[in-house]
Amino acid sequence: IAQIEGGVEYEVLRDDKALEYIDYLNLTKVLEILAEFFDVNSCAIAKDGMLCASALGSSVEDAYQKVVDNNPLSIVGSTVGFSKEVTLEVAKQLKSMDVRNLIAPKLSNEALKYLLEMTEMNVIQVKSPLQEVLGFNADDIKVTPFGYLVQEQNHSKLTKSSFKVSGKTKPTQQMAEDAIFAWKVAKYTKSNSVVIAKDLSTKAIVQGASNQVIAAESALDIACENAKEAVMAVDGEISSEGTLNAAVQNRIGLIIESGDAEISSKIAKLAD
Question: 231-234 and 194-198 as β-strands: parallel, antiparallel, unpaired?
Fold first, then answer.
């Protein structure tokens, strides 16, 4: 991998399992989420170039446990990241789940010694402030047979004015916090994505589906009982009553979407 000017400063403390192309994609995906929640205890995991789960907690141990509880299968062989110092307790848990890559801004001396002596895990320390990662990618560039496609990134900050309650039911404080959390997570998923979140933890992430209804139904099936009174974030406008019907049947408490067109008012009335 070639370093670029203005890139994140990091140090590979150990890479027994040589870092490959897909590893850097996973590390990037995790780092983006950690940057969004740089000032709190957060954990995120990625695999196959996609975000799998994320959570905020009272401690790094708490955030990690939330991720394990909601998506234990994806952790095996994955890339896991933390926004705060990794402790020995967390390091031991990561070993038991056969994690491939760990990225964090800091590791305790005990945790680092344990990881280097007792595991073959790749360990990467981020030395740049995590918040500097926000807005790093000014443009999204793809090379196609038709030429270069360059798309500007939207780096606008979220404020109260960014959102509007469309229905008659007002969200609780917890739902509002979960909605912001889910919205930030959905920002880093592939198109046609649905994120189910509750208690500042993802309960399901489905992305890159062929259509929104399939994404919603799949995510709700994964979340199962955890969907009750949870938040559902849709990465675009709700374009079908089928998406709302799936949410209703699974007792979702709040939906956050980006729509502001005629269909949105119809969906809001149906939600009421």
Answer: antiparallel
DSSP annotation of 102? E
Structure token pair of residue 181: 């959390």
**Interval 245-265: pLDDT, tens:** 999 999 999 999 987 666 777
The encoded tokens of residue 270 equal 């149906």
Q: What is the pLDDT of residue 152?
A: 83
d(CA 174, CA 99): 32
Instruction: List, in sequence order, the alpha helices (H) in 187-240.
Output: 212-223
Of 125, 113, 123, 126, the C-alpha closest to 16 is: 123
Which residues lie below 8 Å from residue 196, measured CB to CB, with a gap of 6+?
182, 202, 203, 204, 205, 219, 220, 222, 223, 226, 227, 230, 231, 232, 233, 252
Tell me the sheet residues that pair with 254.
231
Report the alpha-carbon distance of residue 177 to residue 160 in Å, rounded: 12
Q: What does the chain come to in residues?
A: 272
Residue 200: partners with Cβ closer than 8 Å, 6 or more residues away: 55, 56, 57, 66, 177, 178, 181
Using alpha carbons, list the distances in angstroms from residue 121 to 26, 58, 99, 108, 231.
Answer: 15, 26, 7, 16, 34
Q: In this predicted model, what pLDDT tens digit does every residue of 114-148 receive, in sequence order?
A: 999 999 999 999 999 999 888 776 677 889 999 99
**Does an H or E element contain 30, and which?**
helix 21-36
| Residue whose pair of structure tokens reads 């680092």 in the numeric block | 112
